[in-house]
Amino acid sequence: MIFERAARREFAQAAAGVFVALFAILVSTQLIRLLNEAAGGRLAPEAVVALLGFAALNYLPILLSLTLFMAILLPLTRAYRDSEMVVWFSSGLPLTAWLRPVFHFSLPIVVAVAALSLFLSPWALSKSAEYRSKLDARSDTSQIAPGAFQEASSGGRIVFVERVAEDAGFVKNVFVTTVQEGRLGVVMADSGHQELVANGDRFLMLNRGHRYEVEPGSPEFRVMEFERYGVRIHDAEVRTAENSPKTMLLWDLLRGDSAREQGEVLWRFGLPFSALLLALLAIPLSFVNPRAGRSINMLLAIVVFTLYNNLLSISQAWVAREQLPFEVAVWAPHVFMLLVLAVLFYQRLAVFAFWRRKSP
Asked: For the whole model, what pTM was predicted?
């Protein structure tokens, strides 16, 4: 019990350090991507924090799997380097004695990975898509910054306003350029606001201004003076968030029979099982030969982790494309890695493995 408590404590310390580092990298990369979208006008600045939280929940299952793998690998690798494993083996204890503390430490994290992959991550993706669709349906005037040219998402309209009223519903001194059927239109108005008509179309209504229309390459142009002029906002209509298998609830996925839904089921259930199997793989992969390079086992561990995740991704893609039966893909990657686990344990436990040359 003393040994198991000490092992869990060391695993927990390593897991905390690894998780903080990986989570910081994840948040930084996602934040840079979202800020880039906000700077380009494709995303409202106030939506960055919410979408960042949804993205973090989406990637947490893989992040926790990698954290668990490294939390087992690093302490055991240190034990080999500090010759603690030599004392361990000299006491008559086998390498398989580490299975119990590793399993007990891994079980809560595997349960968390299962909860995230089966329920929370799809919910986060669904809320993120819904939130983005609501942002796309917002008024263009609410997204316009005073004193800056704002291009619409369709690229066919540019709006400039001098200032925005306190309620953000009215804008003052509006300049709008549009391109319709090859003709360039320029509209200047004293004020403007948004209106929603009965059929759901939205218009930017401009008050007291002029419209200039010209065809590029032609000397002819038209000038119109208006008291009220409406610009239909085509690209900002409300759109329903895409109901992809990644955003579907678990029970809806289980009731579905399409290939894409089966591929998503394969991925969600495969993540927690792979997390547990990777934790067990870390035990034989932690071996370090003092006479060889100290980074060889880390490189091998990275290869194993990447191989396992790629096998899951490839299996999901093949099932979604109906190139591999679901009944085969649901067990094939895990059985292959179980065989790798058995071979690695045999290599560490056997006195004379079949690939080792016996000394004369």
From this structure: 0.75
